[in-house]
């Protein structure tokens, strides 16, 4: 009786300690994310209507869905994500809390991402090393990669993308340790919720399934009873099948009822039930999304070929996204643990942890996906953070035990070592001063445009700006963070980087063809054709390059059904060469054309003879010649732009050499030089934004500011 009471007291103390550690770790995680708030509390350009704006473009996608959910309406084919998990969750939070929508967008990542401390502490408790879980919670909640994607303002799926798989890891550990059925149900529900929240979770779920499956095979070979393990992977598979969440929930609950009330009968037919789950998984297309992800992030090509009746080649967007590029080992280690030394120590700690507690091998899927970053891009590093945090937590715990057998000294050693590990991560947070996506002045333009443009009108810009444009101006866009395939980007790139006449015609064609495509039914031939192919075929041509040439003539345009606006920000200047890539391609052969000359210098210097523009480019004051590397090039013209009162742009131009190849533009208010060839100088973006020289038969200015210029298409 005494022993039983003692055992109950120990359990109660352990639970109280877990709750205390979770609260401390949560407050620590949330508070560190407020450092950014304190740093920029007086930066008015980061606020709109006195509320902080978010700092990730994709966040505006879910913000649009939330806005429309709360409004109860949205226009047809506006691509508003009203049925996505983040938008639904945010709308729910908005309804049950007194906070403004902007406040919820901004602080949701900090709150929900900090929930990762709960499963980490509980994992430590599950191996009777709660201090390991506590240290892991402190480190893992603020590690570089995790912090960067869950800081205040980073409103995106990442706010729960790691929390849910770590909860899955905890539930699997407890299921195998206790062989209690309730953890099977908990695990299955977590998988279903995770898939609902983040549809790309297939790969990680399958990795967990494979690991548990390997354990079941091991038990079978060693003649150990594997009934519970087989039951576990059977539920995992049914939770992972390619059916809607509601059907998977019904299947899992019905199966659990069978297991709970008819346990012997369930076990009798277990092997058949497992076989049925495998068949249903493949029959429902369960493996298809995994292969699709591998093709996107691992097997990357520079161009993508369509499967239409005209074989067209387009530049692939993944080649320009840093998240999918390879990273150095130093960056890899820093992103996961703060610095390379701590990462290596974490790796040693995790190895030691798995030797002492083999059940922690269940963390390998998260580690493996995180290590994929070495090949597939830095976005994957975030997955390894929590498991490596458990590794360093275990290493610190063991070192403190080795160095002292007295509790108070163990605590002191643990504290010192934990601070050592936390320091590089806190230092990173102090230095990580990421700005908001837009400044206040930029949003003011979109807010004004909202009162000018109709909800059915299109605002065209590069895909980076698509989501924010839709959220603030409540209009339609051609491209955005989720719709930026090579064929879609081609038309926008072409419009921005070509002369005004062909750009204007392309804009009208692409917008009208986009709207027409929404009306096509599945199965119609044109539904699977790109806009460029349809334009080519509709004009009686079989070569897309011929259609591009035809745009330079008086081609018959599709009937106008709505207005089109060009949104031209100053920030697009920095990515102009990247924008040009998507239309600087032979559509029929896939051959990349020679890139036009473009050099932007925001950090120039001046001496007695030259204006140094950086990267080997200098302008001679004596003869006006440009030196580009080892070559001297004649300057065709020198242009200076300056704003007068009321934001009126004054452009002064001096012709230098008739046969000059390059133009030098000094944008005095921006403190930057731009050196471009004639093709770039005559592009729609440069003419309309830099020089405000617009063809008044094609465009009319709608809003002109130094940061953003909006023009309305007149044809």
Task: State the assembly state of the protein chains.
Answer: single chain
Structural class: alpha+beta
The profile of the biggest β sheet is:
5 strands, mixed
> Which spans have pLDDT < 50 for at least 5 consecutive residues?
none
Over all CA atoms, what is the radius of gyration? 29 Å
Summed up, the domain count is: 3
N-C termini distance:
90 Å
**With helices defined by DSSP (H or I, 4 residues minimum), what is the helix count?**
31
> What is the percentage of strand-forming residues?
5-15%
Question: Strand order, biggest sheet?
Answer: 7-16-15-13-14
Q: What percent of residues adopt helix (DSSP H or I)?
A: 40-55%
Mean pLDDT across all residues, rounded? 92
Number of strands: 18
- Rough outline: globular
Task: Tell me what the structure shows.
This protein is an alpha+beta fold and 715 residues long. It has 3 domains: 14-53 and 99-431, no CATH class; 440-581, Pyruvate Kinase, Chain: A, domain 1; 598-713, no CATH class. 54% of the residues lie in helices and 11% in strands. The protein is built from 31 helices and 18 strands. The strands form 5 sheets. It has a 5-stranded mixed beta sheet with strand order 7-16-15-13-14. Strands 8-9-10-11-12 form a 5-stranded antiparallel beta sheet, with no helix packed on it. A 4-stranded mixed beta sheet has the order 5-6-18-17, with helices on both faces. Strand 3 and strand 4 form a beta hairpin. The protein is globular. The N and C termini lie far apart (90 Å).
